[in-house]
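Two folds, back to back.
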Amino acid sequence: MSESLPVDPLSSATPVVSPENAAVRRQLLYHLVHDRDMLMCEAMRILGSPDRAEDVLQDAVLRCLSSQALQRTPDSPCSYLRRMVRNLALDHYRKQKREIPCDAFAETLVCPATPVEQKLSAQEDLVHLMRALGALCPKRRYAFVEARLKAKQQTEIAREMNLSASRVHALIQSAQTQLEAALAETL
C-alpha cells in the first residue's frame, strides 16, 4: 500500500513535498524557464496563438508543481517537458475545436420568426397584387398566371389559347408592365 504524505498544517489541501520531489520539481522548473522559447514555439505551432501557447506553458508549470508522481528527474527533462507541452497543446486544440465561436453563436440568438411589420406588409402587398391581377383582362391574366406562376412554356400556353407564341409573349409582357405600374401606385 502507498504511503500517504504528511499535510501542511497551514493548508489542508496542499501536501508537504519531500526533499527528493522538491529537487525534481526545481529541475523541471529550471528547464521550463531555460527552454521557454522552444516550448512556446512548440505550443504555438499546434495552437497558432501566442496567448493559448502561454496558457499551455502555465498549465505545464502547474502540472510540474502539483504532480505527486515525479519521484526522480526524468532522463531527458527537456524531452519530457516538450512531450508534456505538446500533449497539453493538443488537449487545448481539441477543446478549442469543440467550442462554438461567439460570432456563430450570435447568429443563432437572432429570432428566426419574421417581424410582425414584415408579415403585415407582405400581406398588404399580396392583396394589392391580387387586385391588380383581377383588373387584368382575362387573356392577359391567364397568360401571365400560366407563365409566371405555374411555369408553363409559352409555346404550350400559345397552343392552349390558340395564339402564336409571340402574341403570348406580348400578353405576358403587357400584363407584367400593368402589374408593376399598379403596385408602384400603392407603394
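---
second:
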Amino acid sequence: MAANPRAAAVAALVRQEQDGFSNLILDAELRRRELDGRDKAFASAIFYTVLEHRGTIDSILEQFLPKGLAKLDAPVREILRAAVAQARYMQVPVSAAVNEAVKLTRSFKKSSASGLVNAVLRKACVYDLDKAVFKDEIEKLMVLAPPAGRSRSFCTAITRRRHLAS
C-alpha cells in the first residue's frame, strides 16, 4: 500500500473505530507511514474532520447505501467518510476526492467495492442537506447542528420534548 496521507488517515480511522483513543492511533499511524510535514498535516486534517463531522457524513452516506453503512467493510466505510469529509469540509474538489477514494479502495485490496465507492461518492459529495427528511427534531439536530453546539442543541431538544410531554 502506497504511503500517502489519505491512506494513513483511513488506516487510522479504521483502527480508531475498533480501538478508540484517536490521538494515540493517529500519531502511531503517521509515524509508521513516515509522512513528511505537509502529508502529516493533511492526513491529520482528514482524520479529525471525519471525527468532527461523522454524524452528518454518516447521515449523508446512508441516503445512498441501501444496506446501510454498518454492513460495509471497515476500510470501505472509512474511505467513504474520508472522501465526503474532503469534498464537503476541506475544499477538495469532488472529482479529486472521488478519484482518490476509488484508488484508495483498490490499494486497500477492496477492488470489488470500487464501483460502489465511485457511485455513492458522486451523489453523496454533492447531496443537499437542505432537502433531507428527518424522522424528528432530535435527528435533525444531530445531523445539522454544528459539532460544538450538538450537545447543547440535543439537551435543549430533549428538555423541550419532556416539557411538552408533561
